[in-house]
Amino acid sequence: MKYLGLLWAGLFRRRTRTVLTLASIAIAFLLFALLRSIIDGFLGGVQLVGADRLIVSPRYSIVDPLPLSYQQRIQSAPGVVDATMANWFGGRYQDPRNFFPKHPVDPRAYFNMYSELIISPEQLEAFANTRSGTVVPRSLAERFGWKIGDRIPIEADIWPKPGGDRLWEFDVVGIYDGPPDEAPPDTMLINFAYFDEAREFSKGTVGWFIVRVADPNAAGDVARSIDALFANSANETRTSTEAEFQAAFLKQVGDIGLIMSGILGAVFFTILLLTGNTMAQAFRERIPEVAVLKTLGFSNFSVLGLMLGEAILLSLVAALIGMGIAVLIAPGIAKAIGNILPNFSIAPQTLLGGVGLAVLLGIVTGIFPALQGMRLTIVEALRRN
Amino acid sequence: MSESLVRVEKVSKSYTRGKEKIEVLRELSMNVPKGDFLALMGPSGSGKTTLLNLLGGLDHPTTGSITIGGERIDSLSERDLARWRAGHVGFVFQFYNLLPVLSAQRNVELPLLLTKLSSRARAEHAATALEIVGLRDRAKHKPNELSGGQQQRVAIARALVSDPMLLVCDEPTGDLDRATADEILHLLQLLNREHGKTVIMVTHDPKAAEFAQHVVHLDKGVLVESLT
Predict the structure, then answer these.
(1) A53 and chain B: CB distance < 8 Å anywhere?
(2) Does A60 touch chain B if contact means CB atoms closer than 8 Å?
(3) Which residues of chain A are within 8 Å of residue B56 when distances are taken between CB atoms?
């Protein structure tokens, strides 16, 4: 700790340069905290789902539908307790920014499958008996001010009605909740029978099947036996856990993790070059000072430690500033993107990872100047003064 | 003659520049008594600074031995030599070589960072050293807020603060006007006479050399004249 003052003072030898470098690194760590949290937000959603359910989806692409008739064959597969189906509806409510998933489902079978969802028996019955009915999660109802009895217009982007009519209207017949200790559900559920009858094409097909297995430990065997049922058919299947399915679904948009990691990689590579150059420049300017420290009795390793410590201090301070800003603005961001990413928050492990990354950045950018400082001979350095 | 603090025996120092070998010091021997104030004079390239660097433990001789305070320093490892410098020798340079980002007080405290002294004790020692050089009231000032003479006084305080037996000064007045130079030389004289410090000073300036008890002349790496 007694060297902290010396390190701190050394950092501000060139105040403007240090402030600009600090700002650059701080922005990199601000991005790190936010993008890492977005990745975690996506994965967090994946990890909430149960392990005793499997998803049977088209083997090659989510846009290739599966015949509804598969459901009976899946239900009869060994180890399968129950099966139901769902579809992707897409569509827009008022504004394209009002994104939320909309799934046509078999009402009773769906709520039976997702027994953790909470809905009153009367509302479920109304959902099953109202062809244009919809049940919405409480989060959506509160966000848009919906109540039972409202009619929700959705403009279709994938599924027009015959004749090209893209306006679908659904009557809110119920509001459901998720388990209290999990992220709130965000999916508007539509009656599949109405959807299938009213859509222009692909009737009798579904997006995916949801399967409950008797023994989660045997889920792998069940998945293989389901896929074997449809092997070499026109519509081969790929059975996976819900987590895998959601991850694969996100990959239809793009590998979110890879994209984010790519952005972060580019940012940190730039920062590495920038900070490395700054540290090298700072070292060249301070050769006489290093010589003086050695003259006073600082050993080669003390000089190495001091110079490395200065680089680490610079990146740590910047990282704390950047991640501090991220923590401060995170609630606002969470509110803004809550409809797409309800699990967005900056986790302590993200911050800890950031601290580790900052130390690593300091070591990488500081090690070469520090080694030069360590190897510097006093006489040679004083001669350069 | 009083007890020798510095014993230099047949010291040679050579450098290699490309394929050329340059002999800077040639089998030089000398003794410096404890409590002496010695001026090293000679033309440029005569080996004064090289000898001073060897006596201060900043470099190793090519051959020969250097004993200071009874300890052979020519055979010490880099690490041990650094430790020896921290405890036994204070340096004063021509261009002061203060750290510009630190206050006078913090510059003086620098050598004490290598000790186990507490923060308060370090501050007290530094304050005492600044008091000796007459700059206690400028302790909070940074080097660029001080005159050249004041900066050199701070450098002397830094050299003194760990209470070394030997002060090694390389052209300490080379960057100062006559009046300021005389003040600095009086200060070195005071440290020599009243605080018992052995002072070895390289200088080109005959007036500066007059402040020393002894003057040694070097030329082409050998002692050519010794005056008392």
Answers:
(1) no
(2) no
(3) 295
Q: In A, which residues are within 8 Å of B100 by CB distance?
A: 13
Q: In tens digits, what is the pLDDT along chain B, a chain of 228 residues?
A: 568 899 999 999 998 888 888 899 999 999 999 999 999 999 988 999 999 999 999 999 999 999 999 999 999 998 999 999 999 999 998 888 899 889 999 999 999 999 999 999 999 999 999 999 988 899 999 999 999 999 999 999 999 999 999 999 999 988 888 989 999 999 999 999 988 999 999 999 999 999 999 999 999 889 886 655
Burial A189-198 (b: 16+ CB within 10 A, else e): bbbbebbbeb
CB contact under 8 A, A300 and B78: yes
Mapped onto helix, strand or coil, the DSSP state of residue B70 is coil
Sign of the torsion angle spanned by Cα atoms B188, B192, B197, B201: positive
A chain contacts of residue B83, beta-carbon cutoff 8 Å: 297, 299
Q: Collapse the DSSP code of A54 into the 3-class scheme (helix H, G, I; strand E, B; otherwise coil) and give the result.
A: strand
Tally the residues of chain A.
Answer: 385
In angstroms, the Cα distances linking A175 to A67, A87, A211, B3 are: 30, 20, 24, 100
The set of residues, in sequence order, having a beta carbon less than 8 Å from that of B224 and lying 6+ positions away, is B42, B217, B218
Helix, coil or strand: residue A80: strand
- Any chain B CB within 8 A of the CB of A296? yes
